[in-house]
Amino acid sequence: MQDHQKKLQHQTGFTLIELVMVVVVLGVLGAVALPKFVDLGTSARVAAVNALMGTIHTTANNFRMACALTSGCDISAQMGTLTYQGKTYGMNYGWIGAGTSINTNLIDTAIAYSGFTVSIANPNTIFKLNSAKNPATCSVTYGNAWATAAPHDYTYSINTSGC
């Protein structure tokens, strides 16, 4: 009998209360952390739209500088052209053009926009994110400078409500 009592005294393990507490703590951590991980898709789509807008800004400014440094490209002209890296692009007041047609050497042919669908709503070019919950409201819009008053700057907008 004493041997049996010694075995009972030396047995180790978790009690039922300890196991229940661990399950409760894990449940609370899961409930707090899970929404943060679920929302990562939306954050990634918003980041993709913002990255494309950065690409558009950089490209527009590069074309503007190239136009200012190239004889025959007049940054004060409503309509003009610039031959840049072997292609002739449409320009508006020294900014690369947008919003007249796709694949005619305007902003859509000057940038890489993989994962986006491009469309025209003259005087704008609209880039819609294909993987968005609602691509129509997860987009970047680039507008022609001739559609604005002096000093004639290109326009842009970002819509991330449907990302």
From TrEMBL:
Membrane-crossing residue ranges in chain numbering: 12-34
Signal peptide segment: none
Entry keyword Transmembrane helix: yes
Keywords: Membrane, Transmembrane, Transmembrane helix
PROSITE patterns to which the protein is assigned, alphabetical: PROKAR_NTER_METHYL
Keyword Thylakoid: no
Gene3D superfamilies xrefs: Glycoprotein, Type 4 Pilin
Protein name according to UniProt: MSHA pilin protein MshA
Species the sequence originates in: Rhodoferax saidenbachensis
Top-level taxonomy: Bacteria, Pseudomonadati, Pseudomonadota, Betaproteobacteria, Burkholderiales
